[in-house]
Amino acid sequence: MQNNHSKWMTLSIVALLALCVLLFSALVMQSAGTQSNDVIGEQQKSDKIYNWKLVTTWPKKYPGLGLAPENFAKLVGELSQGQLNIKVYGANEIVPALGVFGAVSSGSVEMGHSAAYYWKGKIPAAPFFTSVPFGMNVQELNGWLHYGGGLDLWREVYAPFNLIPFAGGNTGVQMGGWFNKEINSIADIQGLKMRIPGLGGEVFTRAGGTAVNIPGGELYTSLQSGVIDATEWVGPYNDLAFGFHEIAKYYYYPGWHEPGPTLEFIVNKDAYQSLPPQLQQIISVAARTINQDMLDEYTASNNGALEELIKKHKVDVRPFPKDVTEKFKQASFEIYEEMAPKDPVFNKVYQSYKQYMDGARKYHKISEEAYYEIR
Length: 375
Fold this sequence. Notes:
The chain is of the alpha/beta class. Helix content is 52%, strand content 14%.
């Protein structure tokens, strides 16, 4: 009886062990299958084709400004081997010229190309990420953005709007603008109505003029009809294309209001986070490439366009009188110092910007400026 019982216990243990082995094998197979499915899922996700819309503030394929988003879209398509396709829409095709920020923020489109200073009404500190009167030039601004903490601040400021910004091009120092009357002193600014956006517009108003913000596509008719007396746009390359020389005789310099204006690519944060990491990286690399490429295009094109304006179209190119630029400079820093205590975000960005500019200016005094003087 004892022997039979022992035999039965032995058989039971063997059976239980066999069952455990079978259960363990089943669990291993199930786990392997799950992992295999996860790998397949990830592979399918990484192979997904993304089709995005990019809206701009500029006319379709307009030299410089309008070509930059086209070049960006082409580069992204090539680098991603067709996995991320971006279709570019010019101003007013599906979104108004100054409706880019809201469209991308809401997610109705995935991307935009514009300039941060247009959003001053929403974000008082935004102009620092484009250009401010008597501020940094393009070299200094790029240094601040990419190595001085400026881009981190920019993204912090845009985060509540569900946006991720990237520097997206620069024109270099701009011209002071087109005027249909001579500017011989600050008295000639009084009552003058000029299209000039951003903080430059506030400075112009404080100096006695009236600033208005009009999209680029409407400037020619506004100046021609007398809605405005003067306009700034960009510089010879773009201004020649718009034909401002046909309706305004005097072309003033320098562009005190925009010494190094950075354009922006803005991406809807949800759309960006839906991309696999390699496509996110491609967007970053392509934006950095276009940021430099646009500056190269303007540097190569501005002088030829200026020569044509002077020699062919007899445009009268003049410097602003000294008392005018001195008044503009005084008003600029008065505005910065007045706004800083009122807006913590503005103050945070301004202090970072100012500290970096002060340092860069010291070095440039014995490098860039000194070289220009002896060249």
